[in-house]
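Narrative of accomplishments. A recurring question from our advisory board has been how the design workflow behaves on a single, concrete structure rather than in aggregate. To address it, we present the structure tokens for one chain from the evaluation set, followed by the sequence designed for it. No filtering or post-editing was applied between the two.
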């Protein structure tokens, strides 16, 4: 044991074995085999009853560095009440019997006692069932209706297609068409400039794989990783609004329409998963930790669901309901901010000033919050914070998930979208910028370094001064955003093929389309798989790695039907309602008959290739040119 100034940072194996077991589970299923059987999972606070020296060790070790240590003052035990605590049930309530039973065990082995945390006692009785209520029925009816629409839409697409309003409505739910959309090339559409942004699919998938796993949170600063999403979101909003402004002027009356479109884009799959969690998910499994892990989220979602549908949940603290979806609430409000800039401010210069003001506010806000509320510089995923799914951590609640503390990178994204649009208006001579390729190549290594730099906040015994925290909090976001501002345009304008080849791989387009649904269900998958364990697991790095990939794959497997039956159909419905196709526009089936390429023969050798539209491919090398040209349509 190493002890400095009365603070215990580390315990050797012998000393650590003296502590009461932090987690302990009696056999669950053998406990619930007959009427009257009961199993309880409890939290209990240790108190002294003779061994003051051991309790002192526990308190000092737990307090030495709560960033890397569990709180061993609080034990979490699963107890078979009717077997382990049978002798205490006579004249006592269940809670009194549990406390007496725990104290008897602790007294014999550690000379300690404990007091139950009353609100953290979760009991399960033999053949306990949950009654189906009105909310369960309503959600089931809605989901069955959506499934029925998908079946009818697919049959309608296969058997009989008409141009009626009802027919086009049903075709939105056609699995055949949505499957084809899933595998369509990235950037396919009427606006060719959007195809230049297909690298965003690769960035989204890579971030999704690293963002919500504890492995990467321990070594990296997760707050930095999510800032990339804000840069991408702001860039896409500005770029798309400027493209739309070429056809119609952005005006204030259009602002509510754009907000509604964004709400309708995000909400259908989000609301569906939220509804399932609030109603039926509590029936998806069983186990000693089922109620404290899954049950608490169900109760929280039944209480707080309207905050989520209004995208206000980033300002709701201590709620276990889909805590990871704070990003959606922040993104919605930042989208409204971006729309205000472009709809209210008309001139290019005034928009740059407005974005500059937002940028300054985004730099100042997290620094002020860190100082006034004495917060950590980064969101530290300590064992206790992870055990509670982050929601009890002050830094997570007041700095990490708030809209006003995440403005800076979104403002940088808006500026980047404007810059990319402006550059695409002119012919960019990329050769002039190739001398800066080392800077472009350095963006990823520097980004990894900035993420790893957060590890200094996990070191035992370090008390980071307030001034350092105030400067680090906005500064590291700013630096990470600047790296994105180099990497993204460098890839779009084909400065190099090293990163571009990876990020623009066509496979990312398919995964990117279902990544939103995977993001929504990911934490629910972790909760359900964790809560279904009936015994304690002794793990290692390999086991953690396998669990991570199992969660990732399972999330995408669940996300596929979610996208096919909910997200894609409702996106098509939005397009049908808000973007009706012109009467003279060819229908999808008609487009199938248009050839993708045309072969021309007997073309003269000295043809001016710059004037050929669309760009052509020559079948043979120039020295073997036989006059054959293939036009790619």
């Amino acid at each position: 044991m190493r002890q400095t100034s009365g603070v215990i940072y580390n315990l050797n194996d012998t000393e650590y074995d003296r502590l009461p077991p932090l987690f302990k589970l009696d056999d669950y299923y053998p406990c619930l085999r007959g009427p009257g059987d009961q199993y309880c999972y409890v939290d209990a606070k240790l108190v002294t009853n003779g061994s003051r020296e051991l309790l002192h060790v526990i308190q000092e070790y737990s307090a030495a560095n709560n960033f890397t240590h569990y709180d061993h003052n609080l034990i979490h035990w699963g107890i078979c009440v009717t077997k382990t605590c049978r002798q205490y049930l006579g004249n006592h309530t269940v809670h009194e019997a549990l406390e007496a039973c725990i104290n008897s065990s602790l007294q014999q082995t550690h000379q300690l006692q404990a007091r139950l945390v009353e609100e953290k006692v979760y009991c399960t009785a033999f053949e306990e069932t949950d009654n189906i209520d009105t909310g369960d029925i309503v959600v089931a009816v809605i989901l069955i209706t959506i499934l029925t629409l998908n079946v009818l839409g697919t049959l309608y697409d296969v058997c009989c297609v008409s141009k009626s309003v009802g027919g086009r409505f049903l075709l939105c739910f056609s699995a055949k068409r949505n499957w084809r959309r899933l595998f369509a090339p990235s950037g396919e559409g009427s606006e060719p400039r959007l195809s230049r942004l297909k690298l965003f699919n690769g960035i989204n998938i890579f971030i999704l794989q690293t963002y919500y796993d504890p492995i990467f949170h321990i070594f990296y600063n997760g707050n930095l990783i999510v800032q990339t999403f804000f840069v991408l979101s702001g860039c896409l909003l500005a770029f798309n609004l400027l493209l739309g402004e070429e056809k119609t002027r952005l005006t204030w009356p259009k602002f509510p329409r754009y907000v509604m479109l964004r709400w309708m884009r995000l909400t259908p799959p989000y609301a569906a998963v939220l509804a399932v969690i609030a109603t039926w998910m509590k029936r998806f499994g069983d186990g000693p930790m089922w109620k404290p892990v899954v049950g608490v989220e169900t109760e929280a979602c039944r209480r707080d669901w309207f905050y989520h549908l209004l995208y206000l949940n980033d300002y709701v603290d201590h709620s276990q309901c889909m805590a990871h979806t704070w990003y959606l609430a922040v993104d919605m409000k930042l989208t409204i901010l971006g729309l205000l800039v472009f709809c209210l401010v008309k001139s290019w210069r005034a928009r740059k000033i407005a974005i500059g003001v937002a940028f300054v506010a985004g730099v100042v806000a997290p620094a002020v919050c860190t100082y006034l509320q004495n917060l950590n510089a980064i969101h530290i995923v300590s064992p206790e914070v992870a055990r509670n799914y982050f929601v009890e951590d002050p830094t997570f609640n007041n700095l990490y998930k708030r809209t006003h503390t995440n403005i800076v990178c979104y403002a940088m994204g808006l500026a980047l979208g404007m810059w990319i649009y402006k550059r695409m208006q002119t012919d960019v001579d990329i050769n002039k910028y190739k001398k800066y390729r080392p800077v472009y190549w350095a963006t990823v290594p520097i980004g990894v370094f900035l993420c790893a730099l957060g590890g200094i906040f996990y070191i035992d015994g370090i008390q980071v001064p307030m001034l350092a925290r105030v400067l680090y909090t906005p500064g590291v976001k700013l630096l990470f955003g600047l790296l994105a501002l180099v990497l993204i345009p460098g890839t779009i304008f084909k400065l190099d093929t090293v990163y571009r080849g990876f990020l623009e791989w066509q496979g990312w387009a398919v995964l990117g389309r279902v990544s939103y649904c995977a993001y929504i269900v990911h934490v629910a998958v972790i909760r359900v798989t964790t809560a279904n364990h009936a015994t304690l697991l002794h793990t290692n790095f390999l086991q953690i790695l396998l669990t991570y990939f199992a969660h990732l794959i399972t999330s995408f497997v669940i996300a596929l039907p979610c996208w096919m039956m909910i997200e894609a159909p409702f996106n098509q419905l939005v397009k049908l309602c808000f973007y009706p196709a012109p009467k003279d526009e060819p229908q999808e089936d008609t487009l199938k008959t248009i050839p993708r390429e045309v072969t021309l023969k007997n073309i003269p050798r000295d043809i001016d290739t710059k004037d050929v539209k669309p760009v052509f491919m020559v079948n043979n090398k120039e020295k073997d040119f036989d006059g054959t040209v293939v036009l790619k349509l």
